[in-house]
Design goal:
This protein is of the alpha+beta class. It contains five helices and five strands. A five-stranded antiparallel beta sheet has the order 1-2-3-4-5, covered by helices on one side.
Length: about 170
């Protein structure tokens, strides 16, 4: 790591910080990922971080994330897994008018080829949810996030990443 830290700073950290600074007026102050995080005990994750990125807390604490890796640039909005309180509030919201609004948002996102990705869900309906509830699939979700990714290319050295992340 120490032999290559200068490469990390020049090629990844500085461009990531520049992106963070450019996005701050619209999204607030971001947190830049640490370069070497031990992730050996996380399921489905490489043992060490091989990417970089930023995260900000959006409205209501919703995480907005941008990740730069050798594969390209990816953005994510939402929670991969809700904590117990978030899950309880989510299910109450899905049961009411907010659930109808969420359905409309999801339909609009699908038109833009954005669908909730890798959303953890229950195999059965949650306790207390009627079997014939019109939004039963939403009740089963244990998180909700939407991702978009673009392959690496020359465009990453232009202003285009800023536009895509902001959009």
């Amino acid at each position: 790591w120490t032999e290559n830290a200068h490469r990390y700073r020049a090629v990844l950290l500085e461009p990531t910080r520049a992106l963070a600074v450019a996005l701050t007026p619209e999204f607030g102050p971001p947190r830049v990922f640490r370069p070497y995080v031990d992730r050996r005990f996380r399921p489905n994750a490489d043992p060490y971080r091989t990417d970089t990125g930023i995260t900000v807390a959006g409205p209501g604490g919703t995480p907005y994330v941008a990740v730069l890796s050798a594969q390209g640039l990816a953005v994510q909005v939402g929670h991969q897994v809700f904590d117990a309180g978030q899950l309880r509030r989510y299910r109450v919201a899905v049961d009411g008018p907010a659930g109808e609004a969420l359905d409309e948002v999801l339909v609009a996102l699908r038109r833009d080829d954005l669908v909730p990705a890798d959303v953890s869900s229950l195999a059965r309906r949650p306790r207390g949810c009627p079997a014939d509830h019109p939004r039963l699939p939403l009740f089963r979700w244990r998180g909700l996030h939407v991702d978009r990714a673009w392959s690496a290319g020359e465009w990453l050295s232009t202003e285009e990443p800023l536009r895509r992340v902001a959009a």
